[in-house]
Design brief:
By secondary structure, this protein is α/β, with parallel strands linked by helices. The chain has 6 helices and 7 strands. The strands form 2 sheets. A 4-stranded mixed beta sheet has the order 4-5-6-7. Strands 1-3-2 form a 3-stranded mixed beta sheet, with helices on one face. Strand 5, helix 5 and strand 6 form a beta-alpha-beta unit.
Length: 207
Amino acid sequence: IHEQHHKQLQNSRTVQSPMSLNEILRKHYSKKRERKIGRYSATDIYKIRRGELTPENFFEGLPIDDEGIKNIFRGMAYEDYLKKILDDEGIKQERREGDQQLKYEYKIDENITLVMMPDFSFKDVIWETKAPGVVKEEIPTWYLDQLECQHRITGKKIEFVQFTQPKDGLPPTVTLEFKPSDIRWKNIINILKEFDKKLREKNEAHN
């Protein structure tokens, strides 16, 4: 039934326009981030660990497919509306001027700055929100580096908040508490230092 419905959608007549909504989304999410040697995001670390982000492609950015776009778009939509609900309920959040997310910059050493922007920051806790297709019973490995950075930079408890899906029999959200690891943090610092060293060497070789 699902395959038949998918074929019907593919064969359906679509509205023609100078730029389709899908093209707008693909263009938006394929924009290159501004990159600087010595400044790395908490979300970069797992990509470096996996070998997806390298000194060779650091300034080019990583490609994103339609599945990635759908996941990011859905998660941001949930996040934006949750903020509206918290505002309506008078629940105070820590925000930057202009009502933007907080931005932390943490010095690893004189050459390396780790940048982190939590989704929701409160006095004693940070919420990192996700909208997975299937709710996880444990925090996925690919988020642990990011959450470790959030804890180390702020000293706060980190909660991994998952928005659930219709008809899955679960409450609207499922929250897991992150458990910090001294070993993981030490490993993160080593990863950043080694990556920064290789990136600088590559940049000097081209200059």
